[in-house]
Specification:
about 375 residues, elongated
């Protein structure tokens, strides 16, 4: 959308009577591309940006802000918008008018939704539809099979998207209502972990692009599955690095060790290093920010290969929750006392070994701890 044109076609009450949509020959666009667009959007092009804004009852400035926030380029005053675009504008503006969202928050809703779904759409086209639309028979073009495939998939993918979104929304809402107070809803105490493939830059010079893509996909898929299965949340992936968060230190520690163990058992994977920090984290648009996140990243950069480093706050939390002993000497004393009393000694999941304190740029002196498993863990699946 663009705000440099006042448009035309509005009647006395501000309603817009859109002109008929141009055919493919007039627009110079590929006929199949237009047919696919109509199929996916469920409506044909009817409005210029100005007409859409007027029909939705919003200013061109606000309409343009929403459009750009969703991740779309300015289109001048081309007649490229549909009834669905008008309805979306009307709904967002209605939330603002009703006082349910501020204008800034409505723009954030548009931006976060646009960014998330843009990545999903790109993946579906690049990795999913690309394979399905390979011509099934010699002589058939991809063009001839794309439309019917999309026509069959569209309703199923739409229903699945809504289902997953509702599930994720329910999980997020549950975490919010369990927060101790309103401040904790935004600034929360979380365990944040970074997992980083060692020597990835060297690999990019030695591997073919397709091989590298397969390795990255395997790493991201494995990490995502492990994080989700153990109750963590995958925040984002950065090719050779994943960022995850967990509500408690024990969950974050278990995920980190499982990641290292799983990658070590895969001969195709490089070595891995993980850093975890525990503390106050600011959450916004699904991402996490703050010194705790920065510390986790720094710990990852200094972690030994196939090892996990944690900060002192996470170590203290593991000791407090009795997931790890304060030291092996303490554990030995507890075991001896339990044996003398004829009782079972305390069972700890993890062991912590203090490392040398070191200065970390921007964060001062930190005391990293090496996290390992303790004892015989029979259930690591």
């Amino acid at each position: 959308m663009s705000v440099d044109d006042t448009g035309s076609g509005a009647d006395g009450d501000g309603r817009v009577d859109p002109e008929p949509a141009p055919d493919a020959a007039d627009s110079g666009e590929d006929p199949l591309a237009l047919r696919l667009e109509g199929l996916i959007l469920g409506a044909e092009r009817r409005y210029t940006p100005f007409q859409a804004a007027r029909s939705a009852g919003v200013s061109m400035e606000l309409a343009s802000r929403f459009w750009r926030a969703m991740g779309f380029a300015d289109i001048g005053q081309a007649r490229a918008l549909t009834e669905a675009d008008v309805l979306a504008l009307r709904r967002l503006a209605g939330l603002v008018e009703a006082g349910l969202l501020s204008e800034a928050m409505a723009v954030q809703v548009a931006r976060s939704t646009g960014q998330t779904t843009a990545r999903l759409a790109e993946w579906q086209i690049d990795s999913f539809l690309e394979g399905l639309t390979e011509p099934p028979e010699p002589g058939m073009t991809r063009t001839e099979v794309t439309y019917p495939i999309v026509e069959l998939l569209l309703p199923e993918l739409q229903e699945f998207l809504v289902y997953v979104w509702r599930r994720q929304l329910a999980a997020s809402a549950g975490r919010v209502v369990q927060a101790a107070d309103d401040e904790e809803m935004v600034d929360r105490r979380l365990a944040v972990g970074f997992a980083d493939l060692v020597g990835f830059t060297r690999l990019t010079r030695r591997m073919e692009e397709e091989e590298l893509g397969e390795l990255v996909e395997a790493f991201e898929t494995t990490a995502a599955d492990l994080v989700a299965a153990r109750g963590g949340r995958l925040i984002k992936t950065l090719g050779d690095e994943v960022l995850y968060a967990a509500d408690d230190a024990g969950t974050a520690a278990e995920i980190a060790l499982l990641l290292v163990e799983t990658m070590a058992n895969d001969e195709t994977m490089p070595e891995l290093r993980v850093g975890i920090a525990f503390g106050t984290v600011t959450t916004r648009m699904g991402d996490v920010f703050g010194s705790t996140v920065n510390l986790a990243s720094r710990l990852t950069s200094i972690a030994p290969r196939d090892a996990v480093l944690v900060d002192s706050a996470l170590a203290e939390e593991l000791i407090r929750t009795q997931d790890a002993p304060a030291s092996e000497a303490v554990a030995a004393e507890e075991a001896a006392a339990a044996e003398k009393a004829g009782e079972e000694p305390p069972s700890y999941r993890f062991a912590l070994q203090p490392m040398w304190q070191r200065p970390v740029r921007g964060l001062g002196v930190v005391e990293p701890w090496l996290l390992t498993r303790r004892g015989d863990e029979s259930d690591r699946s």
